[in-house]
Recover the amino acids of this structure.
């Protein structure tokens, strides 16, 4: 009767072998994986093999389900839009010929474990040429470690926490401005409008990214002579922050800054209205610039400002495939039917960073491209792409967008890119 | 009829029942073969980093499921918070490495001991609770521990987590952690077998069948229960420590997530609670199922639904797990599948 | 602590306790009568919230008017689930029903995420966010209304359980299933009815919550846990007990939120463990419904 266990064990063995074979079958050179990257790159970086096939494969694990499903979709859209456009133009120039670009994307379910597992699969099973980042600081943190282990470059566009880059990694680069810079634009703008502002309250989602945003904002506010009267965190995925709102209200701050993500930002706004918290400026790190914010809050979104890595109205000029933010916006709108959120733009910018580095290196060799990335200094449709020695892009400023009373989002900062004036002050709830 | 059968044989999973006789010997041989396959797996040509990664995850899960089986399977206490021990193991190991500057192995020991001590401290009061109350007390403690770790910034690093150094040489880290997980899972199986041969094992089963009677027979039930809890904490704590160093970071929301508890219970239930090999085999079945769903079936975003439906089907038709059928205690038939419903419906 | 924070905290806690009573009472009935920890309770609550959201967004139905609709729909769903699924294994060991309802939760949340996306949504009628000030304490209309409606529903449930034949049958089943059967109570149907009542109350709570708080497919889990804690605090079985438990819990939650804002549930959960250890039957434990 124990035949059944026998059969099961045999099945397990077969299944394990089959799964393994399935992954390994594609590439008989599999044993090379554990060896230093030097041996791998010769077989990958072979654009010189005559005039025929040449392709670059970019791999990424992106959150298509789970809590970051929405943002993950923007990231995927950004990657795909670039790939479509560059292939229309014949591909990425490598040396004297052009390589078609391919994209391999897996769903990491908004789960860091899964993200790391999939990136390991992309490297060792799918043999992608280069890696792109996932969404969110947590997942990026986990995946950069894998990229470093296999010495495969990863240019990421959606992990802003500086702790990702404090580990001395050589193969990780971020095109977006780091977290501590997020709220600086809002503070500058508010003080520019009304130098008499005195006090700031900061509420923080208890997460790696938001904590860095908040600390950066606090330091900057104090540097500018503002008094930080409230500085406290709420639990991640909190469903009720009325206690913090009440506490802030009792301090009567001029400016309320929120460091967090879309969902909790909406919650803070909703409960501020419930409890009658009306500062002169309401500003957030993430949220107000997303169409979802307006959808969730309706007219209560009016006057709220949000930091943006990029906006469709910025006045950058570039010779990259998109040229200007406006052209990128047109292409994105034509393909996806909506105004591009900045997550899509920065994701596309990650590929532009690769393209320029590959062009400069004249090769698909992983180490040469890494060196070219480290030396990159390029003005793209997304702004400056340049990395400091840790791999962070500290050279690009943050923009600010405001939810206008006409229901649209406009860039209101930096001044030279502003399309509308910053509406000030925030009209108190009881006067609407 | 089935009711009567149950009453006649209250201890259905007499642990070593004929394990070395007849066909059971074949089973053991087969298992040894599978273990051998796992032992040499990293040397095989198709053992890529991805497969090492995946198998390491499975083996860690198996180790935790084996640990859960002590308290949930043999002793019959529905512990739903074992991830707390995983998290404490991870933090204990990580903090020892970072704050005390210790090497990995001493740190791992500190993490595991911390998990065990914690289990004993909370076990003494909460193991007096029964049924649902015990279950929810364990969930509550695990959730609270996670939140405390997440916000106690000065000690645990808070939501920013703690970052550990890489295993060196980095080229061999895949193999190193694979073998750590492999040894842990095998050690867990040996430990199960060892305990079941002792009085402790019989005490556990006696408690599961009837705690009052066990007490009256002179079994020190408190001691036995706390030991079961502490040993399951040991397994989870060791798994947590290995996991922390493997991932090179410890973050409360990762190491205290309730999914880990569920995974270990599912693995144990799928394979068969209260059996030596059940949790181990269950971990493989569970993970291969999940991997198949994620990578090879075009179900995309609905795989959680499919997983849920599978759990529902297992609960309705074969809640004792697959071991009953595999080890030949029951024949696989429509009748056997319906037996559960006949027994428990209203 | 400043006095505004304190008084506002008290008001917040009292208003919160109404909705939480409603959340916990359905959970408590199912637990008390069927002896099931219904881990899918929060998922049903979430579906109720979404029904309100969609009725409001697509057809402009006022969220308070959608209350009977969402309750009726979820009543039918709950009846079917109990009658044709849970009844099959209801007398099995605890682990089985625990995992069964948990799997139901996974399925419902996953399907909701698949069809409705994971976005945070809000029901925003014109009067959302309006309120009046009492002294300097802010009282939002919707939360006050939710509080009152919760109390009314709780009262109706009490009347139903005490004065109707069906209600008596449910209580009898909870007290002694064999005696109830002998009295001609049809057990499978009664069980299904009980569960349906539980899911309908969850859906009603979901509707009320959706007016005051943003909703998303994973919102339910937190409420399941709260329902459990409340049942333990208040003792299983009595409606006043649940109300007392909800009030106590609301105070713990609101004030631990003021003092330790980054801890979400830890304080309430540790209180729960303490109560369990000291008084395993709860503060006002009784075995069946009054």
């Amino acid at each position: 009767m124990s035949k059944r266990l026998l059969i099961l064990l045999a099945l397990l063995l077969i299944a394990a072998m089959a799964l393994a074979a399935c992954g390994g079958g594609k590439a008989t050179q599999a044993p090379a994986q554990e060896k230093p990257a030097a041996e791998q790159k010769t077989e990958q970086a072979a654009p010189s093999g005559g005039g025929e096939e040449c392709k670059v494969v970019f791999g990424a694990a992106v959150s298509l389900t789970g809590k970051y499903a929405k943002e993950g979709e923007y990231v995927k859209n950004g990657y795909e839009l670039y790939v479509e456009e560059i292939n229309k133009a014949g591909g990425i120039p490598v040396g004297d010929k052009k390589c078609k670009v391919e994209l391999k994307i897996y769903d990491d379910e908004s789960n860091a474990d899964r993200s790391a597992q999939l990136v390991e699969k992309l490297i060792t099973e799918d043999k992608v040429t280069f890696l792109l980042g996932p969404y969110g600081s947590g997942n990026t943190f986990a995946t950069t470690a894998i990229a470093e282990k296999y010495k495969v470059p990863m240019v990421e566009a959606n992990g802003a926490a500086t702790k990702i880059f404090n580990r001395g990694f050589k193969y990780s680069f971020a095109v977006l401005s780091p977290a501590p810079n997020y709220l600086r634009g809002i503070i500058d703008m508010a003080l520019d409008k009304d130098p008499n502002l005195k006090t700031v309250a900061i509420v923080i989602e208890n997460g790696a990214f938001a904590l860095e945003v908040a600390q950066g904002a606090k330091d900057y506010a104090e540097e500018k002579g503002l008094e930080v009267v409230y500085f406290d965190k709420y639990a991640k995925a909190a469903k009720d922050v009325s206690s913090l709102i009440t506490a802030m209200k009792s301090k009567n701050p001029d400016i309320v800054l929120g460091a967090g993500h879309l969902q909790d930002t909406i919650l803070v706004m909703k409960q501020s209205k419930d409890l009658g918290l009306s500062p002169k400026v309401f500003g957030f790190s993430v949220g107000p610039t997303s169409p979802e914010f307006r959808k969730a809050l309706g007219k209560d979104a009016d006057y709220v400002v949000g930091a943006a890595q990029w906006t469709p109205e910025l006045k950058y000029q570039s010779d990259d495939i998109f040229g200007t933010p406006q052209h990128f916006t047109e292409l994105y709108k034509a393909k996806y039917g909506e105004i591009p959120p900045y997550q899509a733009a920065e994701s596309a910018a990650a590929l532009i960073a690769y393209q320029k580095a590959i062009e400069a290196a004249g090769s698909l060799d992983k180490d040469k491209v890494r060196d070219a990335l480290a030396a990159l200094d390029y003005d793209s449709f997304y702004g400056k792409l340049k990395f400091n020695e840790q791999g962070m892009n500290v050279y690009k400023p943050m923009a600010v967008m405001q939810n206008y009373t006409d229901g649209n989002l406009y860039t209101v900062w930096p001044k030279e890119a502003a399309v509308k004036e910053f509406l000030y002050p925030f009209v108190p709830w009881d006067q609407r | 009829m089935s009711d009567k059968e149950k009453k006649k044989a209250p201890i259905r999973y007499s642990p070593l029942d004929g394990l070395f006789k007849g066909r059971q010997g074949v089973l053991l041989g087969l298992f040894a073969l599978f273990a051998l396959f796992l032992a040499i797996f990293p040397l095989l040509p198709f053992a890529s980093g991805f497969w090492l990664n995946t198998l390491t995850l499975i083996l860690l899960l198996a180790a935790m499921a084996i640990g859960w089986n002590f308290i949930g399977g043999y002793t019959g206490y529905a512990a739903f918070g074992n991830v707390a021990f995983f998290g404490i193991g991870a933090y204990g190991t990580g903090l020892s490495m970072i704050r005390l500057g210790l090497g990995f192995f001493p740190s791992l020991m500190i993490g595991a001991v911390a998990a065990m001590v914690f289990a004993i401290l909370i076990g003494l009061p909460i193991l007096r609770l029964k049924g649902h109350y015990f279950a929810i007390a364990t969930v509550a403690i695990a959730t609270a521990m996670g939140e405390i770790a997440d916000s106690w910034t000065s000690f645990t690093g808070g939501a920013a987590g703690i970052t550990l150094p890489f295993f060196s040489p980095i080229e061999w880290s895949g193999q190193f952690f694979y073998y750590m997980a492999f040894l842990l899972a095998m050690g867990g199986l040996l430990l199960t077998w060892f305990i079941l041969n002792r009085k402790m094992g019989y005490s556990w089963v006696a408690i599961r069948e009837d705690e009052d009677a066990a007490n009256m027979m002179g079994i020190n039930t408190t001691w036995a229960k706390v030991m079961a809890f502490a040993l399951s904490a040991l397994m989870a704590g060791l798994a947590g420590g290995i996991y922390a160093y493997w991932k090179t970071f410890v973050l409360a929301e990762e190491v205290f997530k309730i999914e880990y508890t569920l995974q270990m219970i599912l693995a144990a239930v799928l394979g068969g609670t209260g059996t030596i090999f059940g949790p181990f085999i269950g971990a493989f079945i569970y993970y291969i199922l999940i991997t198949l769903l994620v990578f090879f079936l075009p179900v995309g975003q609905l795989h959680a639904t499919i997983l849920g439906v599978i759990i529902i089907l297992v609960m309705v038709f074969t809640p004792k797990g697959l071991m009953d059928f595999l080890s030949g205690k029951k024949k696989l038939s429509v009748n056997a599948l319906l037996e559960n419903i006949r027994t428990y419906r209203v | 602590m400043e006095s505004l924070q304190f008084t506002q905290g008290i008001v917040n806690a009292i208003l919160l306790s109404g909705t939480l009573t409603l959340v916990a009472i359905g959970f408590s009935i199912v637990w008390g009568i069927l002896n099931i920890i219904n881990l899918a309770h929060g998922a049903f609550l979430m579906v109720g919230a979404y029904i309100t959201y969609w009725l409001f967004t697509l057809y402009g139905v006022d969220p308070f008017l959608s209350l009977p609709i969402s309750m009726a729909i979820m009543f039918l769903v709950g009846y079917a689930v109990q009658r044709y699924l849970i009844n099959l294994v209801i007398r099995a060991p605890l682990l089985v029903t625990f995992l069964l309802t948990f799997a139901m939760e996974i399925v419902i949340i996953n399907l909701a995420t698949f069809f409705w996306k994971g976005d945070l949504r809000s029901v925003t009628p014109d009067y959302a966010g309006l309120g009046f000030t009492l002294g300097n304490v802010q009282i939002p209309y919707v939360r006050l209304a939710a509080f009152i409606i919760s109390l009314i529903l709780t009262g109706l449930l009490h009347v139903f359980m005490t004065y109707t034949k069906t209600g008596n049958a449910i209580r009898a089943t909870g007290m002694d299933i064999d005696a109830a059967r002998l009295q001609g109570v049809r057990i499978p149907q009664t069980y299904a009815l009980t569960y349906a009542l539980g899911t309908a109350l969850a859906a009603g709570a979901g509707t009320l919550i959706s007016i005051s708080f943003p909703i998303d497919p994973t919102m339910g889990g937190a409420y399941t846990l709260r329902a459990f804690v409340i049942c333990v605090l208040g003792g299983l079985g009595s409606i006043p007990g649940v109300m007392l438990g909800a009030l106590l819990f609301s105070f713990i939650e609101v004030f631990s939120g003021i003092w330790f804002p980054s801890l979400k549930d830890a304080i309430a959960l540790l209180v729960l463990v303490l109560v369990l250890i000291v008084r395993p039957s709860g503060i006002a434990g009784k075995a069946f419904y009054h």
Observations:
- Chain C is about 75% helix and 5% strand.
